Amino acid sequence: MAHKIAVLVAGSWGTALSRVLADNGHEVKLWTRNPEQAERINSEHLNEKFLPGALLPEGITATTSMEEAVSDAVAVLFVAPSSAMREVARQAAPHLHKDALVIHATKGFESESLKRMSTVLSEELGRPENRIVVLSGPSHAEEVVNRLPTTIVVASQEISCAESAQDLFMNEAYFRVYTNPDLIGVETSGAIKNIIALGAGLSDGLGFGDNAKAALITRGLAEISRLGAAMGANPLTFAGLAGVGDLIVTCTSRHSRNWRAGSMLSQGLPLAEVLERMGMVVEGVRTTKAAYVLADRYKVEMPITNQLHSVLFEGKSPEQAVGALMGRVRTHEIEEIASASRNKWLNG
User: Fold this and answer.
1) pLDDT tens digit string along 57-68?
2) 44 is in an annotated binding site
3) Is 98 among the catalytic positions?
4) Residue 98 assigned to a binding site
5) Record-annotated residues binding substrate (predicted)?
6) Domains defined along the chain, listed by start
7) Where are the alpha helices (DSSP H) in the chain?
8) Is residue 4 marked as binding?
9) Was 31 annotated as part of a binding site?
10) For the segment 106-163, what is each residue's pLDDT rounded down to a tens digit?
11) Catalytic residue among 29, 115, 193, 344, which?
C-alpha cells in the first residue's frame, strides 16, 4: 500500500532513502530550506550537490514548506545533521499527525546535551522514546541511490514500530531490512563508528598500512562496545549490522566522509580547512567531543577516542597520537572486551 512519507532533510542520505521509499511506491515529500535545490529536484530530478548524476524518480517531490511535507504523512523520516535535529523536529512538531510513525537515520549525539537523537525527537515531538525508530547499518548514500544491494537495521523498543518501518523500506530488488529491539545499541554504534573512521583515515593518510587499520577497527569496536554497554545497550548488537558492519564500511570506503576528513588531517591541514573543503557535515568531529565527555561520565576507557580528541582539538600531531596508543600499558584482549558485557548483565 502506498503512503505519503515526509523526509527531512534533502542531504545525501535523506535523498538516497527517498529513492528507496519512492521505488517502493510511496509518495515522498522531501523537505529542504533551499528553494533552488527544491526547484532542481522537481524540474530536473537531480540533487547535484549531494548526489551528482543520480536521476531521482518522479515519486519524490521537494518542498520548502514544512507544513506541506509533514501534514497527513503516515511516517516522517528525520535525516537532519545531529546539530540541527532539535530545530528541525521543533519545526515539524505542529504539523505531525498524532499517529505518524517517527523514524530517524542520523548518526550522532547532540553536542550540548550529549543526548541520543531518539531522545531529542521524543522531547521535541512529545512522543515516547520507545516508539521512535532508528535506521542504521552499513550503507553509503552513493550506493543506495544507485540501487546497489544494501542491508540495514531498524530498531525500536516497540517491535510493532520497527516492523512498520521495515515494511516501508524493504524491497526484494536491493534494500533488505532487519529489525532490532536495541535502540540504544544501534544509535550508539552508528555515532561512535564515525570516530573510528576518522582514525582510519588518519592511519591510511600516514601510510601505516592494513595491519594498523585492522587493529584500529578491532580496537575501535571494543571502545564502541564498552561505551554502549555502559549506556544500557545489548552487547550482541555490536556484532551485527549496526555495529561491526557499519564500522567496516565506514572505515574502508572511499565514500566515507569521516575517512576522507581523517585522511586530510593526516596531511597537516587544520580542522577548519578540512571541514570547509568537505562542504558537508562530518559527524565524527562533533561525536568525538561528545564521546570524550561520555567516556568520562560513564568511567569507560576509550583510548582511540581520547587520542583523536587530542588531535582534533588540542593540537597533538597524528604521529604523537599513534605513539601514545602503541605505548599503552599491557592488557589482556579477551578480558578487556568481555568486561563491559559481563558488567552490564551483572549490574543491570
Assistant:
1) 999 999 999 999
2) no
3) no
4) no
5) 107, 257-258
6) 4-181 (3.40.50.720), 184-347 (1.10.1040.10)
7) 12-23, 35-44, 66-70, 85-92, 117-125, 141-144, 159-169, 183-205, 209-231, 246-252, 257-266, 271-278, 283-297, 303-313, 318-326, 333-347
8) no
9) no
10) 999 999 999 999 999 999 999 999 999 999 999 999 999 999 999 999 999 999 999 9
11) 193
